[in-house]
Design goal:
Number of strands of chain A: 21
Radius of gyration of chain A: 26 Å
Helix content of chain B: over 70%
Oligomer: heterodimer
CATH architecture of the largest domain in chain A: 3-Layer(aba) Sandwich
Structural class of chain B: mainly alpha
Shape of chain A: globular
Shape of chain B: globular
Distance between the termini of chain B: 7 Å
Number of helices of chain B: 15
CATH topology of the largest domain in chain A: D-Maltodextrin-Binding Protein, domain 2
Largest sheet of chain A: 7 strands, mixed
Largest sheet of chain B: none
Order of helices and strands of chain B: HHHHHHHHHHHHHHH
CATH superfamily of the largest domain in chain A: Periplasmic binding protein-like II
CATH class of the largest domain in chain A: Alpha Beta
Strand content of chain A: 15-25%
Strand content of chain B: under 5%
């Protein structure tokens, strides 16, 4: 009897020893992903804001659109399964995917898509200016079409890359007509996650949308889309504005992934417990006021450009060459067919003699050159300090006007209050989308030649001819017009614990296809 | 007492009108508006103007003020452009963490300060007294944000005793786990007040200890415990209670920094974000509320004076 009991106990021990061994190879995963954002979003309707934080939280997660941009900056289709242009770029037709369900259970049909895209055109001045009076129309339940008065080959690029996202939402939500009409009544989209709760100043909670069917081939995802799976059930975008708190939260295991402040890079670089994700975020520029004041003098603008040592400015702003790129091209990235080095001889020259000659030609007599910069973004402020010093050396009387972000944006509207401002521009792969060349955006690049050339590029039917035209135009911009002094490309950093598997980190953390080991 | 209270409450009305007018004017004088913030840096002027018009920010200021005041009389404190909840819900949900944090910090400060202050007074020329003095000086000198950050590194990152940051409501996790998120922030916030209160208690107790009637009760042979708690503390409490009222207001205003460090969604965070994005309605409502709280705390302290010290006559 005793020996039987002994045998059974031994067997139980043996089995219990084997059970964990059998599971040792299968990692267990968390049901929650905690990803932090460094700013409190002002809205989650990324169709009605250009603010990046709204896009990071809601684009691709809650909302989707017809096409998206991949990490190599190529454009791929998302809610559309086919896209055709005809009539030399005047007619654009999208065939929609069938069976796509909104989070409210309705099926996405052409009526929803046309209404959503037309809302986007109405709210987004850049799109409205490009398409004019034309609007999307339903052809049948799964086809939408827009007929333009002029050829425009890059509508699909605009849809994939616009800072105000052309999100597709149910027409029934748009028709609710809640005031103000431009603010969405409900956050209902087609993405792999649906909206649960926005606890103000705490978090935005999304949960897996069980009826979501990924598009394309399993595993093929990149940038802002692709085959997206909600591998983690609940996603929390924790709103943590303090850098040190975010990093401490990552180290203590409360957050899984977070934006990494540049100054913390050295501490985490090479640490096997963490992964650092680097992504091109845009280009940093000093944009001139071309309507009024000293900035409206092209010779003065050329003088400023010739005085700047962009590497020193970027080092001052970012402290580490890992976080920036010295590049004269108005188009980033370099993989774009529009990328050109034309005019690079005028960039980063820091030639005091040339500057003095140009200032003399400009008739500059020491009037204040007021540069507006926001202290809310330390890298802009630091860049402003270095620019101020570099320009003072060549006898330009610089006044740095430092304000908070809201004041910065309001002051920028008053053209008599400033001569230049510092900001960053989004990654753009088509010249007419470059904000510093936009006649309606702050700085007002209203030059007739510039605008007629941009129109010619926008409505060109021969792409190679348009690219050649752009090369000449960029050279002219750097040599003559100088709408802005680009001082370099900017990278953003995100950091995740080594327990985070998969994911896409282009311009921020995208939670689809991410799993977190327990 | 009743008439006094009524008079003080009635006198609140002009204060509130002046404060409302001042805050409304000041906040609208600062450059920036919610439409511009909402649309972001890359919006064109025409987009901004369209939203300004939709939100009613293109109307003359005096009309916007009149509409706001009219709303208050109807019990409507306005609607935030950014947070689509009623103002009562917004302030209520942000007030709860601040109240818990502030009172918990005050509790820590008082619980530490009164006994330590008494010991420091009783042993004012000894090592224990000096040690408490050093502790009080350190408490007063170390800024709460620095102390908070140090606590995060030691107790959250290294020892992992407490969460580094964040906040969970009682409804979400229950009372004790809720409090777990508040230990470090409350200690960081309360430490400075503890320092002040230790010094105040020590000075106050020392003063009473040197008075003639204490000498008399000593001569009567009463033990130290009874002397301290029956005769000294009651008289020493008056300046301490005054300080407590001020401490509460200081803690409330200082909570914003600690909330920011520990990522607690309190009223301080609410107002910081509201100012940053020019959320006029929230700023106006919170400042009005702060005014009311300030006056109410002042009034409570006056009433407490009368209860503790019968010589004080409020009439």
């Amino acid at each position: 009897m005793k020996s039987r009991i002994f045998l059974m106990i031994s067997l139980l021990f043996a089995i219990s020893a084997l059970v964990p061994a059998a599971h040792a190879g299968d990692a267990e995963y968390k049901d929650e992903l905690h990803s932090t954002v460094a700013a409190s979003p002002d809205t989650l309707d990324c169709g009605n804001t250009s603010a990046g934080v709204a896009s990071i939280i809601s684009m691709g997660t809650i909302f989707e659109t017809l096409s998206y941009i991949r990490e190599d900056y190529s454009i791929a289709l998302e809610l559309a399964e086919d896209y055709q242009t005809a009539d030399g770029g005047r007619s654009h037709t999208y065939k929609l995917r069938r069976g796509v369900k909104f989070h409210n259970g309705e099926e996405m049909k052409a009526g929803d898509v046309a209404a959503s895209l037309n809302r986007w055109i109405d709210l987004f001045g850049t799109a409205a200016n490009l398409v004019g009076e034309s609007r999307f129309e339903k052809v049948d339940d799964y086809t939408v079409k827009i007929e333009l008065s002029q050829p425009f080959l890059y509508l699909n690029e605009l849809i994939a890359t616009a800072t105000n996202r052309p999100i597709i939402v149910p027409k029934s939500v748009l028709d609710k007509g809640e005031k103000p009409v431009s603010i969405l009544a409900e956050l209902v989209g087609t993405g792999p996650y649906k909206f649960v709760e926005w606890a103000q100043d705490r978090y935005v909670h999304l949960t897996r949308y069980d009826d979501y069917e990924p598009y394309g081939t399993k595993g093929d995802y990149s940038g802002w889309g692709g085959y997206k799976e909600a591998l983690t059930k609940d996603v929390y975008f924790d709103i943590v504005t303090e850098d040190s708190t975010r990093i401490a939260g990552l180290e203590s295991g409360e957050y899984d992934v977070t934006p990494l402040p540049y100054e913390e890079y050295e501490r985490f670089s090479g640490n096997p417990d963490y992964r650092i994700h680097k992504s091109l975020e845009g280009d940093d520029v000093l944009v001139f006021n071309k309507r009024e004041g000293i900035g409206s003098n092209p010779k003065f603008r050329q003088a400023v450009q010739s005085a700047l040592n962009t590497e020193d400015i970027l080092l001052g702003a970012y402290a580490n060459t890992e976080f920036f790129g010295v590049d004269s091209s108005y188009i980033i990235p370099s993989s774009s067919e529009w990328y050109t080095k034309a005019g690079s001889q005028y960039y980063n020259v820091h030639d005091p003699e040339k500057t003095a000659a140009l200032l003399k030609d400009a008739g500059y007599s020491g009037e204040p050159f007021r540069i507006l910069v926001s202290s809310s973004y330390p890298h802009f402020y630091k860049a402003g300090i270095v620019i101020e010093q570099q320009l003072k050396v060549v006898n330009i009387n610089v006044e740095l006007k430092v304000t908070d972000w809201a004041t910065f944006m309001a002051t920028r509207k008053e053209q008599s209050q400033w001569d230049a401002f510092i900001t960053s521009l989004p990654v753009t792969s088509f010249p007419p989308f470059i904000l510093s060349l936009n006649a309606l955006w702050a700085g007002w690049s209203e030059d007739e030649y510039l605008q007629s050339e941009l129109r010619a590029i926008t409505y060109a039917t021969d792409k190679s001819e348009a690219i050649a035209r752009w090369e000449k135009l960029q050279e002219w911009c750097l040599a003559e017009y100088v709408p802005a002094c680009k001082y370099g490309n900017e990278y953003r950093l995100d950091i995740s614990t080594s327990k985070v598997e998969g994911g896409s980190f282009m311009e921020g953390t995208h939670p689809w296809n991410i799993r977190v080991r327990k | 007492m009743g008439r006094y209270l009524l008079r003080r409450i009635v006198s609140l009305a002009p204060t509130l009108v002046i404060v409302s007018l001042l805050i409304f004017t000041l906040i609208h004088l600062i450059p920036g508006d919610p439409a511009r913030v909402m649309l972001g840096d890359r919006a064109t002027e025409q987009d901004v103007e369209r939203l300004r018009e939709e939100l009613g920010f293109d109307r003359p200021l005096y009309i916007q003020y009149i509409n706001w005041v009219k709303g208050i009389f109807r019990g409507d404190f306005g609607r935030s452009v950014f947070i689509r909840e009623s103002m009562v819900d917004i302030i209520g949900s942000h007030m709860a963490p601040t109240i818990v944090l502030t009172f918990y910090a005050l509790l820590i400060a008082v619980a530490a300060a009164i006994p330590l202050g008494i010991i420091a007074a009783g042993r004012h020329n000894e090592a224990a007294g000096n040690l408490i003095e050093i502790f009080a000086m350190a408490g007063v000198s170390i800024p709460s944000f620095l102390l908070g950050l140090l606590m995060i590194i030691v107790f959250a990152v290294k020892l992992r005793w407490f969460p580094a940051a964040g906040y969970k409501t009682i409804d979400e996790v229950g009372f004790w786990p809720h409090l777990r998120y508040m230990h470090m922030p409350a200690a960081a916030l309360g430490c400075m007040q503890a320092g002040f209160l230790i010094r105040m208690t020590r000075a106050s107790v020392l003063e009473v200890l040197s008075s003639d009637y204490i000498r008399l009760v000593h001569a009567k042979g009463l033990d130290d415990f009874r002397i301290i708690f029956k005769h000294v503390l009651r008289n020493a409490l008056i300046p301490i209670v005054t300080t407590l009222g001020q401490s509460l207001m200081l803690l409330l205003s200082g909570a914003a920094v600690v909330e920011s460090v520990f990522n607690i969604p309190g009223i301080g965070q609410l107002i910081i974000h509201a100012v940053a994005r020019r959320d006029y309605e929230i700023i106006q409502a919170v400042v009005l509320l702060a005014t009311i709280i300030n006056v109410a705390v002042g009034l409570t302290v006056d009433v407490l004076y009368a209860i503790i010290d019968p010589r004080v006559r409020l009439e």
